[in-house]
Amino acid sequence: CSLQAGLAVLLKAERLFHSSYHSQAVHIRPICRVISHWCAHLPCDGFTVATCLFLVQDTSCLAVSWELRQTLTVVFDFFSSGQGKKDWSLFKMFSRTLTDTCPLASQSKVYVDISPKNKEKELLEVSPPPTSVHEAIVQGDKKTYAVYDLLSPSLFNTSRSLNVQLKWKRPQDSSEMPIPTLHAQRYVGGYGLQTGEICTLIYNTHPYRAFPVILLETVPWYLRLYVHTLTIITKGKENKPS
């Protein structure tokens, strides 16, 4: 569908490349193929046995398929850009709205995190009303998501476009921002190739649980890194990298 229908309509280059952060990735992996078994129409004493289809996972993995997954991560920061509000909408972020789903898509959904910071204070409201609500456990915390199913016929009945909006019911303290369970900071120290260094700090604020972390560093072409100078320090003690 390219940019004519579906979620890709929102991918306007002018807005994406002027965001605070954007990252594109392509993931390819082999997966065991699903083997299908068919049943034919068989007449029996004047009756016809219905056609059936069985999908069986190939446990021996003799047949392999390739899975392609493309992701796009974008971070918009309206509060620090001068607007002074945490409210957002699809039109504010992308200068476009969703008008139709891609006919080739078997699934097309928009998830909005509406998890309350304090269960006694419901500060968030989304519009239009979502088609469903989904709850999941993410990094040990319970998350609530408003789900907009673009394949639902009722979603585009009231309006020809979908502009998901999130508003705060009352002003919130701008200095009080929720801290993610996993977050990171990165800075450059020193100067030149002799004393220059890149420091990445990864924080885990969970009271007792540890999480596996994969760190991907993007290094400019003009910067030369020496792997033997890599040091990993946890709680003041050095850990040798694997």
TrEMBL record:
Membrane-spanning segments: none
Entry-linked InterPro entries: PIG-T
One Gene Ontology term from the biological process aspect of the record: attachment of GPI anchor to protein
Signal sequence interval, chain numbering: none
GO cellular component: GPI-anchor transamidase complex
Name of this protein: PIGT transamidase
Organism for this UniProt entry: Illadopsis cleaveri (blackcap illadopsis)
Gene name linked to the record: Pigt
